[in-house]
# Entry
Amino acid sequence: MKILVCGPSWVGDMVMAQSLFITLKKRYPDGIVDVLAPSWSLSLLSRMPEINQAIELPIDHGELGLKKRFKVGRKLSKNKYDWAIIIPRSIKPAMAPFFARIPVRTGYKGEARYILINDPRKLDKTRLTMTVQRQVALGCPKDAKQPPNPIPPPVLHIDTTNRQHIVDTLHLDLNRPIITFFPGAEYGPAKQWPLEYFRTLALKLVAAGYQIWILGGPQDKSYGSVIAGENNSHLFNLIGKTSMGDAIDLISLSKIAVTNDSGLMHVAAAVGVHVEVLYGATSPDYTPPLTKKKTIHYLALDCAPCFQKECPLGHLNCLKKIMPSDVMESIDSYISRQE
# Structure
């Protein structure tokens, strides 16, 4: 069985997709699983041992790129895949498998892509309430019980050689226990805990004997500067200094990650780090970290979850009312249970 999975466009969704890849390898131990994915995700996919190869989709997010998709599809046809699984629900990701003439093309109904997908699945949101359930269900028989159970959690491979290299390159000191901060969230401000709260918590943790590594995408660099401040020892703004692979390896060194509902939150969970997750506009019922090592900070206000990029009421109380002292208390409690 040769399977092509058309992967999602977001970091968190791609991490959760590993649960699908693991499921496919359990169903077909001798099968081959390839993933067609954006270029940014190739280093992330290289940390998933279930994947035979990650194939770059050279098309920008949101670009139609019909000619490019046709060329990709015709190139993929040489691999003679038996089955394609299209995770995204839009029409564009379904084009390449169609052009590749893959005989079975599975995906959820949506965007009038009936010709492109010949194994359409109906998405029952009342049964498949979580993103990861929806992904894994695509790799199960059409008549399988829903939701899939159990769902294997993502487990990313750590490159210890690269980890030591990046520690040496960035002149990082491992003498103090490390807590990682992920202040960004690509979805929008309604998922972001206030930067001044991150800053306050960071100072409390440094005073308690920890060091803080701040990680994120290039667009988050200014956030790291606000949190780290100037001339503050034990606060390290590493945003923009690491690749995705580097970030995975560095996160694995931390005791705890303090994070918004973001892609790096799922990375931290997948490398076995305890996560303190701050939910605002989104819900832990929909995109929870797939680990038992977690503490969820979610107020479940009447207006939440709104799933808006910006707070429609203008107050962002769903996040502003989660105080740094609350998270500090939670961290202290977790640490005391480990001793």
In short: The longest strand covers residues 32-37. The radius of gyration is 21 Å. The chain has two domains: 2-137, 162-338.
